[in-house]
Each structure stands twice: as C-alpha cells, then as structure tokens.
Design brief:
single chain; 259 residues; alpha/beta; Spore Coat Polysaccharide Biosynthesis Protein SpsA, Chain A; globular
C-alpha cells in the first residue's frame, strides 16, 4: 500500500492567476523533480477563481502526480486559502510561496536546510545579503513602511522580525498543528497572525536572505490598495484585541461556537 507520508508540501495560493500560474508551476516542477523526486507534493489552493486558473492547473495535474489541485467555490482570501491548505497537507515541512513566481524555486534549499533545526523559517527581503529587486510604485512602498511601523508598535514582540509580509515561509507540521486553531485572519495580515501564534507557543523564528524579483505588473494589491489597506488595518486591530485581556469579551461568540 502506498504511504501517504511525505517530506515536503509546497503550497501556492492562487486567485485568478491565469497569466502566471502555468509558468510558475512548470518552474517548480523542473526544480522539485530534480531535487525532491517522489518526496513532495505541490498544493495549489485555488480561491474561487473566475478565470482559467483552475483549468490550467487541472491540465498540468494529469501528467504530474505530485500536483494536488484544491478548489474552493467561495472566496477565502489569502489567509483563508492557506489555512485550508494546511488542513490537507501531508508533509513534515510545509512551505508556502506566492503564485507570481517572484521567488526562484532554487531558493527552497535554504529554507529546507535551516528547517532541519528550526520550526519556522521565513524569507526576508530586507535581510543582510538579500537581493530584492522590484518595481513597486511609491505609494505601495510608503504603505508597506507605515504598515510595518504600526505592526511593531502594536506587537513589540515582533520588533526583531524585519519582514513580516514576505510570501515565502517554511513551517514544521508540529508547529502548524499547535497553532492552527488560532489562525483566523483571512486577508494579508495572516502572516502576522501566524507569526504571533508561533511566538506565543514558544516557537523560535529564523529569517534568511533570499533572491526575490518582484514585478508590480497586474498586482492585485496595487490596483486595490485603498480597500486592502483599510481591511489590513482593521485586521491588525482585531489581532491586537485577540492578544489582549479583552479577548474573552470580544471573541466570546466565536469561542462558544468553536466548542
């Protein structure tokens, strides 16, 4: 009987990524087949896609047995998609990255090497020796800096983490199992939710330098920056309340419903 035990789960959340998903997956396939043959799975968590993303991924999965398409008919958000994928993952190490191909698959080896001695490894675009090339508009950079300052003022325990929002992170299955019931942020603040839950459970977090080549072409964040900014700030406040003495009052209904 074939074992369901795997070493690595690569998770890629995707929302209407028809212009990029195929090339991204082909790049990952080439690298993983060479470096992790029969020792991995690639989970594409498709989040209520209304374009050709689903069909493209399904087409690739016919000749790639390690590719696992997961389709959500309702919009989950990036955080919600990752939470759902975590529940279905089979690897000892869970690595998630964005669908835009900004991170070259060969960078994975850095994460895997450090993950052997650490439960949480996050890439940092601002770490020493990182190569972060981008074409972001000024207002996007300004928002990123302001958001980072607000985050660290609300959560002093995160001051040592240079880049909370990098889309490349490797986690142990043990860590995910320990924190998953505390992951409830569905938007881009999910990363902060994950980091805080991990720190509060006593897990250490290691940052590593990465090669990250981001292009702002077709960026969903830049196109909807105003609405996304508001949603992220509200999620930060929600997270601050969750990690305060007002938690039982503010989250009483959700706590009762989860019992």
């Amino acid at each position: 009987m074939e074992s369901t035990h795997l070493g690595l789960s690569v998770i890629i959340p995707a929302f209407n990524e028809e212009s990029r998903i195929e090339n991204t997956l082909i790049c990952w396939k080439r690298y993983l087949e060479k470096s992790f043959p029969d020792f991995y799975e690639v989970m594409v968590m498709m989040d209520a896609c209304s374009d050709q993303t689903v069909q493209l991924v399904l087409n690739l999965s016919t000749d790639w047995k390690q590719l696992v398409p997961i389709i959500s008919p309702v919009r989950l958000g990036k955080g919600g998609a990752l939470i759902e994928a975590f529940k279905h993952s089979r690897g000892d190490t869970l690595f998630f990255t964005d669908a835009d191909g900004a991170l070259d698959p060969s960078e994975l080896k850095k994460f895997i090497a450090l993950r052997k001695s650490c439960d949480f490894v996050t890439g940092s675009r601002y770490f020493k020796n990182s190569n972060f090339s981008h074409s972001l508009p000024v207002r996007r950079i300004f928002f990123s800096r302001v958001f980072n300052l607000i985050t660290k003022s609300l959560f002093p325990e995160m001051k040592g983490i240079r880049d909370t929002q990098c889309g490349a992170k490797a986690l142990s299955k043990k860590l995910v199992s320990a924190v998953i019931t505390e992951l409830f942020i569905k938007d881009f603040v999910f990363d902060i939710n994950l980091i805080l839950a991990s720190l509060h459970h006593g897990f250490s977090i290691e940052e590593i330098s990465i090669e990250y080549h981001h292009s702002d072409d077709e960026s969903k964040i830049t196109k909807n920056l105003s609405s996304i900014s508001l949603a992220m700030f509200l999620s930060l406040l929600k997270l601050r309340i969750y990690h305060s003495r007002f938690r039982k009052i503010a989250f009483a209904e959700s706590i009762c419903s989860s019992k």
